[in-house]
Design brief:
The protein has about 400 residues and is of the alpha+beta class. It folds into 3 domains: about 5-95, no CATH class; about 140-260, no CATH class; about 265-410, no CATH class. It is about 35% helix and about 20% strand. It contains 12 helices and 13 strands. The protein has helices at about 35-45, 75, 95-110, 120-135, 165-175, 190-215, 225-230, 240-260, 310-315, 330-340, 345, 350-360; strands at about 5, 25-30, 50-60, 60-65, 85-95, 140-150, 150-160, 235-240, 265-270, 290-300, 305, 400-405, 405-410. The strands form 3 sheets. Strands 1, 2, 3, 4 and 5 form a 5-stranded mixed beta sheet that branches. A 5-stranded mixed beta sheet has the order 11-10-9-12-13. Strands 6-7-8 form a 3-stranded antiparallel beta sheet. Helix 3 (about 95-110) crosses helix 4 (about 120-135). The longest helix is centred in the middle third of the chain and has 25 residues, at about 190-215. The chain is globular, with a radius of gyration of 27 Å. The chain starts with a strand and ends with a strand.
């Protein structure tokens, strides 16, 4: 599922290795790397100790220190230029669950000079962990599977990254420090390796975030299924080549349907009854009328939203969306008809009908921005509790968009 490999530098240790006779070895022990035991003690983490060989900038006989390591001018200045060198460092490995907890907690903690200071690559991973948690909170995840051989496969959750999320991830990859790919061989394309590493780290953190939300799964049977492996603590399950191929094809179709985004998408805006924000007005009755508005939104420019009335009234190409699509009215028909034919959405004109949409199709409305409907128990109208805790969204990005009030959410 992936591991977070930590290592650290000690500013008080010698800057260069001890002088030895003979030819310099191709790989040397890092002179001021912190031992795995000392790192575990300083961070209060329970991990697996190990070693790693890193490609680090080298100046003279020793590796160049990270920007966060404080050294005197005499120690940091040498007349020789920087070259790549191989250095072996002690490491501490954390599994994905422990890594997620550490990265999120470390990112929120205040700076403590008595504790290790995070380097640039660790700070990038802290931001990535918060990004992964946010993706899970918005339902931007899909199940996936990986063949591990010997009749076994691994079930996992992967991130669905589109739109502004993809923009953020690309910017993060472009701004990664060189140390992020220090474990790659010298001949490897570092830019491509950074993108692959960031994508793998995102999926690993997303998987850990989903499983932490699901909590401990039911007791595993002797033969685990894909579903139990996807929701439990053990991601592995047994399978056959034919069953695995069928599962991979189905998941690939699902992923393709989610990530293929057209030029425009539908926007559905659920508008509260008049006076909903007025404490003196009762809008909780069964006959309180809600309004469902339709619009088209550009997927390239999310701020460009054109309401359905303007689309219908336009003769020929609509100027606002002309460069995105030339037959916007056909696009609106194709995107509006499927949801409008859904009975629970078609009849969602009253408070109770709107609540049915929330209760039976919780993914339709954003969980954190459901309509402000408060049932008055003393009045005896409406259900006893209208606030329903639904499941996360199904991640169908780029197809439809639903908005409550002024808050538009992708669907």
């Amino acid at each position: 599922m992936g591991e977070l490999i930590l290592w650290a530098e000690d500013s008080k240790a010698p800057a260069q290795p001890a002088v030895r006779r003979g030819r310099r070895p191709a790989k040397q022990a890092h002179p001021f790397a912190v031992s795995a035991q000392a790192l575990a003690s300083a961070t209060a983490l329970q991990g697996s100790p190990g070693t790693a060989v890193l490609v680090l900038p080298t100046q003279g006989r020793g590796p160049a220190a990270s920007a966060e390591v404080c050294r005197t001018r005499e120690e940091s200045q040498t007349p020789e230029s920087l070259v790549d060198g191989l250095w072996e460092v002690p490491t501490l490995a954390l599994d994905s669950q422990a890594a997620l907890g550490y990265l999120v907690a470390a990112g929120d903690a205040e700076i403590d000079l008595e504790r290790p200071i995070a380097g640039g690559d660790l700070r990038a991973l802290q931001a990535l962990a918060r990004f992964a948690v946010d993706l899970v909170g918005r339902g931007r995840v899909l199940p996936d599977v990986r063949d591990v051989g010997d009749g076994r496969a691994m079930a996992m959750w992967s991130a669905v990254v589109t739109g502004v999320d993809a923009v953020w991830l690309r910017a993060s990859a472009a701004g990664l420090p060189g140390s992020f790919t220090a474990a790659c061989p010298v001949a490897v394309d570092r830019a491509a390796a950074a993108v692959r590493s960031l994508a793998a780290a995102t999926d690993a953190l997303v998987d850990a975030a989903v499983r932490s939300r699901l909590g401990p799964g039911p007791r595993r049977r002797a033969t685990a299924s894909f579903r139990s492996a996807l929701t439990g603590s053990d991601p592995y399950f047994t399978t056959t080549p034919a069953a695995l191929a069928s599962l991979e094809e189905a998941l690939a179709d699902w992923q393709r349907e989610v990530t293929e985004v057209g030029a425009v998408r539908a926007c559905f805006r659920l508008v509260e009854p008049p006076g909903a924000g007025d404490a003196t007005t009762d809008v909780t009755g069964a006959d309180a009328t809600w309004r469902l508005d339709f619009a088209l939104q550009s997927t390239e420019e999310p701020s460009l939203v054109v309401d359905a009335g303007q689309v219908w009234r336009a003769k020929g190409a609509l100027r606002a969306l002309a460069r995105h699509h030339d037959r916007v009215s056909e696009q609106l028909l194709g995107k509006v008809n499927p949801p409008w034919q859904t009975p629970s959405l078609k009849c969602s004109r009253t408070t109770l009908a709107t609540h049915r949409v929330q209760r039976r199709a919780p993914g339709v409305l954003p969980r954190h921005r459901r309509p402000r409907v408060q049932a008055r128990r003393d009045a005896g109208v409406g259900p006893r509790r209208l606030r329903h805790r639904g499941a996360p969204g199904d991640g169908r990005a780029g197809r439809r968009l639903l908005a409550v009030g002024d808050d538009a959410r992708a669907r």
